[in-house]
Design goal:
The complex is a heterotetramer.
Chain A (H helix, E strand, L loop, with lengths): L4 H16 L5 H25 L4 E4 L10 E4 L1 H27 L4 H19 L3 H19 L5 H32 L4 H7 L5 H18 L7 H8 L2 H27 L4 H23 L4 H22 L2 H32 L15 H15 L5 H15 L3 H26 L14 H16 L13 H9 L1 H9 L2
Antiparallel strand pairs in A: 1-2
Helix pairs in contact in A: 1-2, 1-4, 2-3, 2-4, 3-4, 3-10, 3-13, 3-17, 3-18, 4-5, 4-10, 5-6, 5-10, 6-8, 6-9, 7-19, 8-10, 9-10, 9-12, 10-12, 10-13, 11-12, 11-16, 12-13, 12-15, 12-16, 13-14, 13-15, 13-17, 13-18, 14-16, 14-17, 15-16
Chain C lengths: L8 H23 L8 H19 L1 H7 L2 H26 L20 H31 L4
Helix pairs in contact in C: 1-2, 2-3, 2-5, 4-5
Chain D lengths: L2 H21 L3 H21 L3 H22 L11 H27 L11 H12 L4 H9 L1 H22 L9 H4 L1
Classes of the chains: A mainly alpha, B mainly alpha, C mainly alpha, D mainly alpha.
Chain lengths: 490, 114, 149, 183
């Protein structure tokens, strides 16, 4: 019965921070770090013990169609682990990073709300409840994007808020239509009652695809992401890019289209096409960027394209690759944003042309950025290599060699633009001097943890370990009838 | 059927405003219109012909009256509050942007490219 | 008229009387949320509108002098925490988060329906304080940056 | 008159009102027009037997109009006419939205017709609410008891919105100057 605590802990932390912190923010730091550590422990515990089961929790002691239920299976637990690990490192990074910017308890309270929202989306089994918690996460994200109080940050946040409100309204209309057709909000019951291949299914599916596609920044809906993710403070960029677009976008898409709609081929084709478009075009846009954080943001769009391609192919291996890439992308993209944040803090610029040889003044940052670059570009034995390899092999095995080719081209393009980052940003000829700032130990530790994870998570694909970690996740995704049966307790 | 379509048309009017308008206040107004339409759609789906409001009265027994579907009403209560929140947030962002740029036109404040 | 902020003396006198009636009406709506239409959200907005009324009539400097703004700010997260605490008490008492563990009472009585009444009051205070805070912040901001220049 | 006729009347009125709110030159008129649309929603809720929502919508409408008037009305505001290169885009958007509308007609036909909801879940609330929660207002009992967790989320959304608005509106005491302004 640990499920409600995934919400209670961060929410209580947010309220407590708002209550007890005065002008100094150390209480806020203590409370939020404690909350994140306990969340990480809980999430790891849930992921290790869950196996093929689904834990269902009925709120308020009512029975399932009448109450809101929380349903956690291996996939949810997997996402919980990602959220809490990236959240914890992000928090460690923020403590020192925000001290340099403008410290305030509001930052930590909003951070905890962000975590609450994402946890709530991931653990819930109720469609409307998903909408509510999505809004919590988004509200916190809007405020955090504009945290620096500069004009461009407000502009990015405004754009993001407008896009977010469009997609939220579309979600609400979709929920209304689905409710009218099935008269229930529990996702398992919707899966059971919604007629397959009906007009309602396709229409609401299209609506949800557009809405959550906006959240996941798939290519035609991506316009807000480069602004928002590059304007936010670095630890928030890593939360947004690493976790938010996945828990609010990709996770919900997978949950809806696999567990509820039963993977209709039309939508899988759309996923494949949109994924390929995202991979190629976003890569080219990234090559043209000189702003480090914008480049990373475009790279996020491209990498989410890989995940989407994996989902769209829809075979067992492809989904394994997609799920593994969710984890890998969260780790290396968070790490890259920490690197970018450190460089911005030290040099006061994000422009690659103004950077130079950083090996001398920032040894940790340079080394970890090399690790992250190898990982994102798919160099063995780093984790990114395996997930991309699995997706490419699955594409060819499933009879889609064109998509496999696109994925290979996408990987090469990734290598190109990250070589650009390394060449100009971290190993350039220009000699640069450090501004008068201190890099806290927390920032270094966060970067080192993630760099180690970049290498360590590779072992998840080794047979023997894969059976207990990634395979239950894939089973949970592919098994629609099993999802319904386990949630309904049959 | 006709009412559903009219309500959906209202939603599309809001979407039109969001996509075409270039000034922040109209955009906020348009997002409000979309919100109204989606709330109203939920309540339209909940109406039962001849049904009464879902509140019990002393004079009538529990099962005696036909009532409309109460669940969407509960959902819309939540969604109205969420919309107020987003309006407040957008207004705050808009006046900060006005303070920085002295205009409400989003085409004129483009500092971020693409 | 420069030395006194706010509207005319007529508006002030009327507000002085009517604001209490508005607040009373808000409290009525909150307390009867489980019996008649209304509830915490509606009542909370009514109370927030009463505060807003005072602020528009007397000017926000006066309101800042009269009310302990910091306390009102703190009341909002406190109510959120209380809602959560009621939920956690549900785990402790009847084993499920947000369970309705109080005595249900008789139908149609004012004190009935267990947790619903308690939560209505909490939400009422929270919504009132929250919305008042937003308007107060907006008003204060406009004052500080000198938006009229 | 049946309720549909009233609703069609109110909805057409709201459509006109929202087009007016989007196209009117004067800012105050636009905000008032959107307020009128909101009150139309409130009326529709009343007709559709949702008095709770009618009250809440009415009050929140007043509140948001006050916020918008207070925030915007004194700023110097210039209405910009649609530039000529925008007209093509406008026509394109209208055509796309029209296509979506025509495509959606089939979907609304497939749904249960107006006035006949399925209510498989909701009937339980109507039958058992009184004895299980002891509240006469069924909507209230759903909001705060059966689906109290949603309301916790809603309270949190409000908290987040207010915290966010305060964060956005805060004036940083020791703010570093804008990078762009510095260079």
């Amino acid at each position: 019965m640990i499920l409600p605590f995934f919400i209670i802990i961060p929410l209580l932390a947010a309220f407590l921070i708002a209550l007890i912190s005065g002008d100094r923010d150390y209480w806020a730091i203590i409370v939020s770090v404690l909350a994140m550590i306990s969340l990480a422990v809980l999430a790891l515990f849930a992921f290790i013990t869950i196996g093929g089961k689904t834990i269902v929790y009925e709120m308020g002691a009512w029975k399932i169609p009448y109450a809101i239920c929380l349903a956690v299976d291996a996939f949810s637990a997997f996402m919980l682990v990602i959220i809490s690990v990236i959240g914890l490192t992000s928090l460690m990074f923020s403590i020192f990073y925000i001290k340099h910017r403008s410290p305030s308890w509001k930052y930590y309270a909003l951070f905890m709300l962000l975590v609450t929202g994402m946890n709530g989306v991931v653990v819930t089994g109720d469609l409307f409840n998903l909408f509510v918690f999505m809004e919590i996460a988004l509200f916190a994200a809007y405020a955090l994007v504009s945290y620096g109080s500069h004009a461009e940050e407000f502009e990015a946040a405004f754009k993001y808020a407008i896009m977010g409100s469009i997609s939220s309204t579309l979600v609400l209309v979709g929920i209304a239509v689905v409710y009218s057709a099935t008269s229930t909000l529990t996702m398992a019951l919707i899966a059971e009652r919604l007629p397959q291949n009906s007009a309602v299914m396709f229409w609401s599916g299209g609506l949800f695809l557009a809405a959550f596609g906006l959240k996941a920044a798939i290519m035609p809906f991506h316009a807000w992401l480069p602004d928002a993710h590059s304007s936010a403070p670095a630890p928030i960029s890593s939360m947004l890019s690493g976790v938010l677009i996945k828990s609010l976008g990709v996770y919900v898409l997978i949950r809806l289209f696999y567990n509820i709609y039963g993977a209709p081929p039309v939508f899988l084709t759309i996923f494949r096409v949109l994924g390929s478009i995202s991979i190629i075009i976003a890569s080219f846009l990234a090559i043209g960027q000189w702003d480090l954080k914008r480049l990373l943001a475009y790279s996020s769009i491209s990498q989410v394209g890989f995940i989407l391609l994996g989902i769209g192919i829809g075979t067992r291996w492809a989904i394994l690759g997609a799920v593994f890439h969710i984890l890998n992308h969260a780790i290396f993209k968070a790490l890259l944003f920490y690197n970018a944040g450190t460089v911005e803090m030290v040099l006061g610029t994000r422009d690659l042309r103004k950077m130079g040889n950083l090996t001398r003044i920032l040894p940790y940052t340079t080394t970890t950025s090399m690790v992250a670059t190898f990982s994102v570009a798919g160099i063995p034995p780093f984790n990114g290599f395996f997930s991309k390899l699995i997706i490419i092999i699955a594409a060819i095995a499933a009879g889609h060699p064109v998509y496999g080719g696109i994925a290979i081209v996408g990987s090469l393009l990734t290598l190109v633009y990250f070589m650009k980052v390394q060449r100009y940003g971290f190993h350039g000829e220009k000699v640069v001097e450090m501004e008068d700032v201190k890099i806290g130990w927390g920032m270094r530790t966060a970067m080192i943890i993630l760099a180690v994870l970049c290498l360590a998570t590779s072992i998840l694909v080794v047979p023997g370990i894969r059976e207990t970690t990634l395979d239950p996740v894939v089973n949970a995704i592919m098994d629609k009838t099993g999802y319904i049966a386990r949630v309904m307790g049959r | 059927m006709t009412v559903y379509l009219l309500c959906f048309a209202l939603l599309l009017v809001g979407l039109y405003g969001l996509l075409v308008k270039r000034d922040m206040i109209r955009i906020i107004i348009a997002s409000g219109i979309m919100g109204y339409a989606s709330n109203l759609l939920l309540i339209l789906f909940a109406y039962k012909r001849g049904g009464l409001y879902p509140i019990l009265e002393k004079s009538k027994a529990v099962g005696e009256r036909v009532m409309v579907d109460p669940l969407p009403q509960a959902l819309v209560l939540t969604s109205i509050v969420i919309e107020l929140g987003i309006t407040a947030m957008l207004v705050a962002l808009a006046i900060r942007l006005f303070e920085k740029n002295k205009t409400f036109d989003i085409t004129k404040i483009k500092r971020l490219s693409g | 008229m420069k030395q006194e902020p706010g509207l005319t003396i007529i508006a002030k006198t009327v507000t002085r009387i009517s604001v209490w009636l508005i607040i009373l009406y808000g409290i009525y709506i909150i307390l009867h949320g489980h019996l008649s239409p209304g509830g915490g959200f509606a009542g909370g907005v009514v109370i927030a509108l009463a505060f807003l009324n005072v602020m528009l009539t007397f000017g926000h400097e006066t309101v800042t002098r009269w009310l302990n703004i910091d306390f009102l700010h703190d009341l909002e997260p406190a109510c959120g925490a209380m809602y959560l605490a009621v939920g956690i008490l549900g785990i402790a008492v009847s084993g499920s988060f947000l369970a309705n563990f109080l005595n249900k009472g008789t139908l149609f009585n004012l004190v009935s329906s267990g947790n619903i009444l308690v939560l209505n009051i909490i939400i009422g205070i929270k919504v009132a304080m929250g919305l008042f805070t937003v308007v107060w912040a907006l008003a204060l901001f406009r004052f500080d940056d000198g938006g009229e220049k | 008159m049946p309720v549909e006729t009233w609703l069609i009347f109110i909805l057409s009125f709201m459509l006109i009102g929202s087009v007016a709110a989007l196209e009117m030159k004067d800012l105050l008129s636009a905000i008032i027009a959107i307020g009128v649309v909101g009150l139309g929603v409130s009326m529709a809720f009343l007709l559709l037997q949702a008095p709770d929502l009618a009250i809440v919508q009415f009050l929140f409408e007043i509140f948001s109009v006050v916020i918008m008037v207070r925030a915007f009305i004194k700023r110097d505001y210039h209405h910009q006419t649609t530039p000529s290169n925008q007209i093509g885009k406008t026509i394109l958007v209208i055509a796309a939205l029209g296509a979506i509308f025509i495509f959606s007609i089939n979907v609304f036909k497939a749904l249960p017709p107006f006035g006949e909801p399925l209510m498989t879940t909701a009937q339980y609330y109507l039958d058992n609410c009184a004895k299980e929660t002891g509240a006469a207002n069924i909507v209230s009992s759903i909001v705060l008891d059966y689906r109290g967790y949603d309301t916790l989320g809603e309270v949190t959304v409000l908290f987040g919105a207010i915290l966010g608005a305060l964060t956005i509106l805060r004036i940083k005491p020791g703010a570093k100057p804008d990078e762009e302004e510095k260079s």
